[in-house]
Task: structure prediction
Amino acid sequence: MKILVINSGSTSLKYQLIDSDNEKVLIKGLYERIGQDPELPTHKEALEKTLDSLTDKETGVIGSLDEIDAVGHRVVHGGEYFSEAVRIDDDVLAKIEELCDLAPLHNPANLLGIKACMKLMPGTLNVAVFDTAFHQTMPREAYLYGIPYEYYDKYKLRKYGFHGTSHSFVSKRAIELLNENGVSGETKVIVCHLGGGASISAVLNGKSVDTSMGLTPLEGLLMGTRSGDLDPAVIQYIMNKEGLDINEMLNVLNKKSGFFGLGGSADCRDIEDGYLKGEQGCTDAFNIFCYRIAKTVGAYAAAMNGADMIAFTAGIGEHDSLIREKIMERLGFMGLEFDKERNDNGKGEFKISSDSSKVMAYVIPTNEELAIARDTVRLV
Result:
């Protein structure tokens, strides 16, 4: 079965064609600057180029679009409507559109990709896989905010969490590794998805019970350009002092803060380089990032009354041994003993805790496109 996976961003479109029988990627690509490039005025043109590349006589991998059995779409926000992947119909489209207020940068772009596929490939099954779905198992004490209940009742303002496809994929693999290492029955996994956007989840017996991102991806950890947690009064104070409106203020918090705001670059590699050179801004950004991650891991161990494994994933989590080391140095109270040699030299999926550690730690590469393809196959 051949599954086309589509990930539409606000100005980009990523795709992979996956053979689900052997889970091999047949072809993949990325289009950027949609809406800015005159050749890519909308997502429809990007998708047309995508489909042309699949069937190109010289470089394509299929003879016709009829060979595609289904299309799996990443959709960022599913609100309380969706706790799993679904076949897309008019009702699903209407609900995704209704949720655009909660994800104004992402859901409209996701809709454009879906509608373009439905127009260009009529009759082909389309499936929506939601970033928020995995976290719909959180209990009320984890997702409700301490604001007047009427705002939840009227507007469903609550913590939703994101990166759910990655957290689901990695936690499932973590449970397999725990079983292989003799841990059976109840499993307690903490997944650290660390990239330009970063979030942590507490996964009890395969179900998310808490996560660090909230109503939007702004809540939680310090990130590439996002501030993460702060006192809401900071917003009012800066707006009054700088004469900013709320949209300008949110732009500061989403696009000018985090690594970029403190250290001058949104790229973790630049921040780490500045940290090693002793530059103050980069040192602050580096230390805050590691501190908040360790603090959140500790909180999630408390939420689950323990932890069996900590899994690091995504760009920073998979490739930055120094950040992993600085985080794990703070977690000895949990019984975690990390192995420096393993941490410094491992590649791919590998163990980074010592054999005597009470809590296992692993690097587990994420694969969101494969997870979307698997969910799509299940619905086909």
